[in-house]
Amino acid sequence: MAQLDVNTLIGAAIAARNLAYAPYSRFQVGAAVLSSSGRIFSGGNIENASYPLAMCAERVAIYSAYAAGECELQALAVVTPTSDVASPCGACRQVILELAPHARIILLNLTGAIRYTSPNELLPYGFGPAQLNDQ
């Protein structure tokens, strides 16, 4: 297990936010995940003129980690340009619950507000692989 350096993870999320492609909403979000091996994967939201094809920062970061073979994720930091911290969307909550079920979630904004939570707090009574095996 890697040691969680919250400031480094937050810095990676902020750097990813600066690279977000959000020409339509202008709502730039950054995310960074820490794998159990100590690697950090980050991503910014990526919009598209065909709006449903956009991808949230949280999923960009998580999918990048998985694509690199890093499937044990310890922490996820998400930074938004809001007056208070903002929670991930429903689609991201589902992905977080399944692909980072034990991760420490760090939500923050650009003014320093921060909130710690967990996948189960983000999506209580979530649907996942265990429910598929209940058939």
Automatic annotation (TrEMBL):
Q: Which Gene3D superfamilies match?
A: Cytidine Deaminase, domain 2 (3.40.140.10)
- Any Gene Ontology biological process: nucleobase-containing small molecule metabolic process
Q: Which GO terms describe its cellular component?
A: cytosol
Keyword Magnesium among UniProt keywords: no
Q: Which CDD domains match?
A: cytidine_deaminase (cd01283)
**Which Pfam family, any one of them, does this sequence belong to?**
dCMP_cyt_deam_1
Keyword field contains Cytoplasm: no
**EC annotation?**
3.5.4.5
What cofactors are annotated for this protein?
Zn(2+)
Q: Which GO terms describe its molecular function?
A: cytidine deaminase activity; identical protein binding; zinc ion binding
List UniProt keywords, sorted A-Z. Hydrolase, Metal-binding, Zinc
The active site of this protein is located at 58 (proton donor)
Q: Which residues bind Zn(2+)?
A: 56, 89, 92
Positions of the CMP/dCMP-type deaminase domain: 4-130
Q: Which PROSITE patterns match?
A: CYT_DCMP_DEAMINASES_1 (PS00903), CYT_DCMP_DEAMINASES_2 (PS51747)
Q: Which reaction does it catalyse?
A: 2'-deoxycytidine + H2O + H(+) = 2'-deoxyuridine + NH4(+); cytidine + H2O + H(+) = uridine + NH4(+)
Q: Which residues bind substrate?
A: 45-51
**What's this chain's function?**
This enzyme scavenges exogenous and endogenous cytidine and 2'-deoxycytidine for UMP synthesis.
Q: Which protein family is named in the record?
A: Belongs to the cytidine and deoxycytidylate deaminase family.
The protein depicted here goes by the name Cytidine deaminase
Recorded source organism is Candidatus Viridilinea mediisalina
